[in-house]
Design brief:
222 residues; alpha/beta; 5-stranded parallel β-sheet; 11 strands
């Protein structure tokens, strides 16, 4: 599974340029044209980074950043024509990770985004880790300690979702949306079945997946 970014930009041509460039470099780009639709999309998917335009009609980039930071530490990179120091400081105060002024180099933007994603995962190669569990999206591999773990595609996607939200409780409904997709017609029992299978596959590390009574599941270091 490739990295996934959310591109929030109200100018259609710029959205297309950004999407085409990142897609050509192996990154999935999900697009939103305004702040409200961006938050709606963000609520139903996991993202590795958010590229966020500041000046948008309605809820601007600062408002979107503030809302995202209430629930997520996902890397946020502001894209803006406002190059003043005060604007940059405001963005950093709200929790953005970097600030790029238009016009910008697409290659530099891509490099900055990739670096933020690697840094957020805590490893130089972008591996996701929690306790004994390590997952490498690049090679689509999982290890527990020094042992390679074989996972089914759905188990892998479920673990990836948990790792991207480690320490955070995810409801069954959220897991269905993010792993099975919004068009899934089955019951939330599917989550429990796959979670049981995933715990079994992880062996001794399966206990890191905690069941939170009447709330859902979360992944912890131990």
């Amino acid at each position: 599974m490739s990295d996934v970014i959310l591109v929030v930009e109200d100018e259609p041509r710029m959205r297309t340029i950004l999407a085409d460039y990142f897609t050509a470099h192996g990154v999935e780009a999900v697009l939103a044209g305004d702040g409200e639709s961006a938050l709606e999309v963000f609520a139903h998917r996991d993202f590795d980074a958010v590229l966020l335009d500041v000046m948008m009609p309605g809820r601007d980039g600062y408002g979107v950043c503030r809302a995202i930071r209430r629930e997520s530490a996902v890397p946020i990179l502001f894209l803006t024509a406002l190059g003043g120091e005060d604007q940059a400081l405001q963005g950093y105060a709200l929790g953005c990770d970097d600030y790029v002024t238009k016009p910008f180099s697409l290659a530099l933007l891509f490099a900055k985004t990739a670096a933020l994603i690697r840094r957020s995962r805590g490893t130089p190669d972008g591996t996701l880790a929690c306790g004994a569990i390590r997952l490498s999206p690049g090679s689509h591999s999982c290890t527990v300690g020094n042992q390679t773990v074989k996972l089914s595609p759905k188990e892998y996607d479920l673990l990836l979702c948990l790792l991207r939200n480690r320490g955070r409780v995810l409801s069954r409904a959220q897991l269905l949306d993010r792993v099975w997709g919004l068009d899934f017609q089955g019951e939330d029992r599917a989550v429990d079945v796959q979670m049981k299978n995933l715990r079994s596959a992880l062996g001794s590390a399966g206990g890191q997946i905690k069941t939170v009574f009447k709330a859902g599941y979360k992944l912890e270091a131990e």
